[in-house]
Every structure is written in structure tokens, then in C-alpha cells.
Amino acid sequence: MTVETTVDLHRTLEFTEKFLGWMRGRGAVLIVTHDHPDPDSLAAAMALKHLITVKTGQPATIAFGGMIGRGENRVMVRKLEIDLVPLSSLDLDRFQVVCMVDSQPGTGNNSFPVERKVDLVIDHHPARESCRDVHWVDVRDDYGATATMLYEYLEAQGVSFGTKLATILFYAIKSETQDLGRDWIRADRRAYLQLLPLVNNSILFDILHPEVPRAYFAHFSHAIQNAMIYEDILVFNLYEIDTPDMVAELADFLLRVDEVKVVLGMGHYRDSVALSFRTLRNDLNAGEMLQSVVADLGTAGGHGMIAGGQIPGIDGSRQSLASLEQTLTHRLLQAFHYYPAPGVPLVAE
To answer: What InterPro entries does the database record attribute to this sequence (predicted)?
Structure first.
């Protein structure tokens, strides 16, 4: 789905002037991404750190609570020299300012303690109730990528940047909108086209074509073998996984199945189940749909055509995961008002 809006740099300049003025001189800054940061989260964090360094001179640290699993993201972190540290390794008391990008307090997808104050939220997902207690909030849920917002911050403030930051901003918009194929607006296209000439094409190629272990292909095999189709909905269960990112990657991959319009995927990581939801239907809000399906079981969020969620406290037994899959599938079929008939395997035995 695309929506055309006019880029308002005056609004961006006014907001950034205010929060930078408030931030200036307050001491060390912490920038929190979500636990398993994707390119959009990483790009937004790097751009915000660069903006703060240039405009206020304050030291800024980027932190995350989980792991970087996808091959593309690991290559991106290495090649673009993205400096970030585990949240658990930090003494949070030494930070006077806390920023959160591509996430919000209490959403379940970041490990920042809910009882601690967050000063700034920058996100392109719908605003949560928890943002009411945040001093500075810039949530633009019509934008396709948080990276687009940060590109406008740099532009409005007249802050120049090098090819590495340009590359990560470009790749974030590219991956988040599937090359301007989903959930983009004019601002995303504008940023995409303006960043393109600045990109390091060699690094971009390496990011797009990473080497992956054999276990990566095993996950594809499991997803294909376990996938069930109900009307135009496909549900797959990876069971035990070594990185939560695989669920999202395979949800995107299986959305290509002929006549499938909705995909729900799940996989068990540590003591939680990671969920990914994808749709090709313009009449749905993926975030709201997944929230209704997860309901009392866990947390979820998203917008437009993509969403993700987490269900904590689930043991990794095959019986428990199969039971959870059955529950979520039943709820999803009810939400679409589909008759709860048995599914059809994607691949016949």
C-alpha cells in the first residue's frame, strides 16, 4: 500500500531543534534498538548517534538486548562498522538521556526496563499508550521506515554524512519497503532516490549476498514441510530456531506462494516464541490483526502489511509448540471469519 504525502522538513527542523536543545549538556546518551535489530533499527540508531555527535558533542552508545542473526545484518554491521553493545553489559545509571528508535517502551520487542524513563522515541509504528510518559515523541506511522525519518533529521539540520551511513540508510529503506514495493510514501521514495548515488555499491552487494551456514537451509526445509494453507492463509512453524530473524525471513519468502495473501510464522527461541505476520491485502492492518490474534498470550506490533510479536514463557517441547500453532491458527481463522476446516499442506508427502 502506498500513500502520497508532502515531505515537511519545517516540522522536522522544529522538532529536532527542540529536542537537541533540551538534550544539549545533559551528559551521556543511550540509544536503544529493539532486541534483534533489523536494518531499519540499526540505521536509525546510527543516524541519531551521528546527529547527536555533530550537533551536541555528547557521547552516545547504541545498545540492543538480543542478537543479530540474519546473515545480511551481520555483514552490514561488520562492513559498515556499526558500533553497538549488549544492553545487559551497561550500567544504565550512567546515562542521563535515553532514546529509543524503531521501538517503544513496553512493546515487548526491546529489553529496556519498563520502570526506567525514556526521553525520546522515534518510530514509524503506531504510538503506544506507553509513549504518554515520554518527553519527546516523533511517531510517523505513515512512513515506511524509521530510517527515512532520520534521513530527514540530518537533512533538516544540515548535517553531512559519509558513504557508510548513506549505505545503511539506503539499505534500511530498501529492505523495510521491499524496494518501494510495500508500505511506502513519497518521503521514503525521496530519501531512497537521494541516498542511492551516495551508496557504496560493493558493500551493498556483500550485504545482499552473504554467506550462510547449512542450518540456514534447514530452516527453509522445515518451513516448507510444516507449512499449512487455509483458504488464502499460510501458517508455518519452525519449532526450535537459533535466531528469531529466520521467522520474518521465511514469512517474506512464503508470501510468494501462489494465491496466498496472508502468512503467519512462528519459531521458538530461548524461552519465547517469535511471530511474524505478512499480508498482501491492502484492507488489513497487520499490526492490529496480529495483536488481536496474540491477545492475552503475548505482545505484538506493526503496521500496514508487516507485523511481529512475541509470546514469552513457552517451553520448547514439540507438543507445546504444536498446541500453540493450533491456537493461533484457530484465532486467525476466526478473525477472518473462515470456517475452521483442516489445512492443506504446502508440499504433499
So the answer is: DDH_dom, DHH_sf, DHHA1_dom, Oligoribo/pAp-PDE_c-di-AMP_PDE
